[in-house]
Give the backbone structure.
Amino acid sequence: MNGWDIFVQSLGILALIFYVISYQFKKPALFYLFSFAGAASFCIHYFLLGSVGGCVVNIVSMSKALYLWRFPEFKRKHFFFFFIFAYIVVTVLSIVLGWDSYLVILTGVASLAHTYMFFQHNPKMLRFIQIAVVSPLWIVYNIFNNVSIGGILTELFVMTSSALYLYRTRKEKATESIWI
């Protein structure tokens, strides 16, 4: 690994740090601000790795995080569903525009699953989707498309954090299904 490779991989680690910090905030505005910084770092990271698909999908994530940071009350508005629909359309376009290999489909499906999570009012279901769909797809992409160490570590962190939440809340409303 030469100096350039270390620099590019360190951008992925920087993105991981931004995402870890974002999970520490209870205020949505700060969460979205640090999520934007993480997505921006990953965007540059994937671009420098030559992973166009990962770069383009992160541009879409940056726009979502930036908009929700700027308008944190937006989620409560009646036109939120229009935003979600538009995000789905843009995600599908990002798959087409960011096509660098069939692996970009994984990032698109992960992004769409992440968008679906916005509709969930059940925190357990949200974490379940993250563990079962979103993170595994990004891990496969990160392994087989120009190896992203920061990407792999980020998804392992998110999966661990989600699993710990599910473990800590397993006894709350024991009769509640994650599918409700």
